[in-house]
Design goal:
The chain is an alpha+beta fold. Helices cover 29% and strands 17% of the residues.
Length: 597
């Protein structure tokens, strides 16, 4: 997914500058530091749904605290898990069946008992509806053999038998031998299935309650009416019945979400009795609230306020050294992607569209030597100097450095103008070097500006016949360039949907992944390596395969990995239990925190 975070969010996720709002009437809440059982988090935007199937990325914060999955993360370690609604699980010898034993004596906040029927309904509902902007595809692939819902997979005009067959696949994907046992049936082995199933998308909902309130009735007779449904128009959009440690007390849309501890929670009662996520677009107002003791955690989208906050009474600033002490945070990969398949029609960014000194062809970056020339002409140190918040390590491959398969021995491009020149001389049979070029790199923000300027400096240093035009544009114009496929170089951060290297390598390197399918990168050898690694169950074999992915990616240069971010977090010094788990939408679970008086 495009990156989301608790306190620091990559500009591609919150790309538009938020409008400065009016300071909220904080005193009306009566939630000062003296209220040790209330936690107040000031953020810049509201959640957009309370339906776990629709919640994806940043939107899943309340979901993962009110609903629960079969297993969950153990505090700050994305590879330490704890049983939640399941107590144990086992995998068949062929890797095609996952059997979960479910916890007894659990009830939803509605009072309904939790059973396997709720797990079955939750999964089948995800496979039936599978909205395009949800995480349902994570389990649709291993359970059905496709990431798409029925309408997208077989076409709305397909024969009734085709739909009947698709339904049979859904119906066979999960079964309940008894009320306390759930069995998932995969169509092929998937080494990451267990962690995929922990995504908030598959947090278990109260099936009887959902049906009683107008959601899908769970039958074959009505399933086609719900394919691809817009869940934001239905009851679960703003109502919840979960088994988690909290329940939603109110949601004033655009203002705040208030949650209360669930007195009937099956686990230990949390220390925080009330949690408030309040929207405050004005960063200065958020800082003032923290200094006044009226907030317990605040979102910062700039580093400048840290100077006002560090060392102040009642304020705790957790810097990058502390927040990364477990080696996992941050887990985002930030990269600049070369568009190998631009649309040349009406594309001013490529000038004349020819090698005549005043343009480049639309498939300019399809030549590997061009990509390598730009890669070696990019200076990561110069980029970090312009954006100190992004002065972390440069990864050798597009996989989090603490994940299985990350190979630190894969070379980095670095800044090497001699190598850049050799590749530019070879590009397009010498036509690039002989004729020169004009290429525009538009940017809408400070991040894009830094990248465009560093690329401009490096490329233009190679030849006086090379022009890279760093152009400032607004976000509407930038979005238009993306939608028309006119963007030569794009920048994005990617955060894994589940803690497995496949969550990185597929969107970054597979021909059908998010970025390669958008920007025209395809290598059949790469596809085979990624597919084989996804099915392998032996860790050593997977490590070997992902290392090969890294080396092949270095050879092909479809992208340049940028220095990582260095995140800081600002919270009250009364908050206890601090940790950051990058796999959680909020970075932490509310039940793990506390406050001293």
């Amino acid at each position: 997914m495009l990156e989301r975070s608790c306190n620091r969010t990559h500009p591609r996720n919150v790309r538009r500058r938020v409008t400065r709002g009016v300071i909220a009437a904080l005193a009306l809440l009566g939630l000062g530091a003296a209220c040790a059982q209330t936690f107040r988090f000031l953020t810049i935007r509201d959640r957009d749904t309370l339906d776990p199937l629709q919640a994806y990325s940043y939107a899943a914060g309340p979901v993962e605290n009110v609903y629960e999955g079969l297993y969950g993360y153990l505090r700050g370690d994305p590879q330490s898990f704890e049983p939640l609604l399941a107590t144990s699980y086992e995998v068949s010898a062929d890797g095609l069946a996952y059997t979960y034993q479910l916890r007894d004596g659990v009830r939803f906040s509605s009072g309904n008992p939790f059973t396997c029927a709720d797990v079955e309904y939750t999964i089948e509902r995800a496979l039936v509806i599978n909205p395009g902007d949800s995480g349902a595809w994570l389990l649709a692939e291993p359970l059905l053999g496709t990431a798409m819902n029925a309408n997208d997979e077989i076409g709305e005009d397909a024969a009734a038998e085709a739909y009947a067959d698709y339904w049979r696949r859904i119906d066979a994907s999960i079964e309940c031998p008894d009320a306390s046992t759930a069995v998932f049936h995969l169509v092929e082995p998937d080494s990451a299935f267990f962690t995929k199933a922990m995504a908030p998308t598959f947090n278990v909902i109260d099936s009887a309650w959902a049906k009683a309130n107008g959601m899908w009735d769970g039958t074959q007779a009505t399933w086609r009416d719900w394919i691809g449904a817009n869940l934001r128009e239905h009851y679960l959009q703003d109502h919840m019945s979960g088994t988690g440690a909290y329940r939603i007390a109110s949601w004033e849309k655009g203002v705040r979400i208030t949650a209360e501890a669930n007195p009937d929670y099956w686990g230990d009662q949390p220390g925080l009795k009330t949690v408030i996520y309040e929207v405050e677009e004005d960063e200065e107002a958020r800082v003032d609230a923290m200094l006044a003791g009226e907030a317990d955690w605040i979102y910062l989208d700039h580093d400048e306020p840290l100077q006002r906050l560090e060392g102040r009474p009642g304020v705790r600033v957790v810097g990058p050294e502390e927040s990364t002490r477990n080696g996992w945070e941050p887990a985002t990969v930030l990269a600049a992607f070369f568009n190998q398949a631009m649309d040349g029609e009406g594309n001013d960014n490529i000038g004349t569209g020819r090698f005549d000194g005043f343009g480049v062809p639309a498939d300019f970056f399809s030549d590997r030597d061009v990509r390598l020339c730009f890669a070696y002409a990019f200076d990561p140190a110069a980029f970090a100097a312009l954006l100190p918040a992004f002065s972390g390590d440069v990864l050798t491959m597009a996989v989090g450095s603490s994940f299985l398969g990350y190979d630190p021995d894969v070379p980095s491009y670095g800044f090497d103008l001699a190598r850049a020149e050799r590749h530019c001389r070879s590009a397009w049979g010498g036509a690039l070097w002989d004729n020169g070029m004009y290429l525009a790199i538009p940017y809408p923000d400070e991040m894009g500006q830094a990248i465009a300027q560093v690329m401009k400096h490096g490329i233009e240093a190679l030849s006086d016949r090379f022009t890279v035009d760093a152009q400032e544009i607004d976000w509407d114009a930038y979005d238009e360039l993306l939608s028309t496929n006119h963007m030569p170089v794009d920048v994005a951060g990617w955060f894994p949907d589940f803690p497995d290297p496949h969550a990185y390598v597929f969107p970054f390197y597979a021909s059908t992944g998010y970025f390669p399918s958008t920007y025209g990168y395809s290598n059949p050898v790469m596809d085979r390596l990624i597919e084989e690694a996804a099915k392998a169950t032996d860790g050593a074999k997977r490590t070997e395969l992902y290392s090969l992915v890294g080396w092949l990616a270095h050879r092909d240069a479809p992208l340049v990995i940028l220095p990582g971010s260095r995140s800081s977090y600002v919270l009250s010094d009364k908050v206890t239990g601090f940790y950051i788990n990058p796999m959680l939408a909020s970075g932490f679970l509310w039940k793990d925190l506390g406050k001293v008086p």
